[in-house]
Amino acid sequence: MTVLAHSEDPNPDHCLLMKALLIETRKQLINEGDQPSGRAQTTWRRICEYIREHWQLPINRDSVAQTFRLHPTHASRLFREQGNEGFSEYLTRVRMEKAAFFLTRYGMNVDEASGRCGFSDAAYFRKVFKRVYGMTPSQYRSRRSDGVQDSFSATGVANASLQQQLHH
User: Fold this and answer.
1) What is the reported pTM?
2) Whole-angstrom Cα distance, residue 156 to residue 136?
């Protein structure tokens, strides 16, 4: 990370992104040995796959838990223990990645993208999008269409807790 701090790259976002990627990679490597390969991890992976396949539907922790015949509290515990993030954070991350894709690749308006990503309230979608990406959906789309690449994605790099780690 010291090398990154002295990088010749004039864009500080690139350095910040590299630090975030290194921190996340380090966390995953450390946790790799800690994760059991048993039934809990298998169930968690199946739930993640289900979310990636059904993100556009009005799903939530309770409905997914019911689909997998789990108690909602147990589903939450699986995500905290196996995935190092909460159920809602994971679902939001998947949906925000899709929303960003729709906004930039298909030029969808914000209301259409929010509806396609499982949000019934476009104002709430805008609020969540801004929290994840640090800008409104419209700003994100125009920034991306101008050829400016953002340094954060909804893969967790932009969340507040990771940004706090980067600045410490």
Assistant:
1) 0.65
2) 17
Per-residue tokens: 88 = 């809602």
57 closest CA partner among 99, 118, 122 = 118
Residue entry with tokens 């030029």:
107
156 within 8 A of 85, measured Cβ to Cβ = yes
Check: CB of residue 90 under 8 Å from CB of residue 154: no
SS3 105: helix
Buried b or exposed e, range 15-54, using 16+ CB within 10 angstroms: bbbbbbeeebeeeeeeeeeeeeeeeeeebbeebbeebeeb
Please count the residues of the chain: 168
In tens digits, the chain (168 residues) has pLDDT values of 444 445 455 666 676 777 777 777 766 665 555 545 589 999 999 999 999 999 989 899 999 999 999 999 999 999 999 988 999 999 999 999 999 999 999 989 999 999 999 888 999 999 999 999 999 999 998 887 665 444 444 444 444 443 343 344
| H or E element that contains 42 | helix 39-54
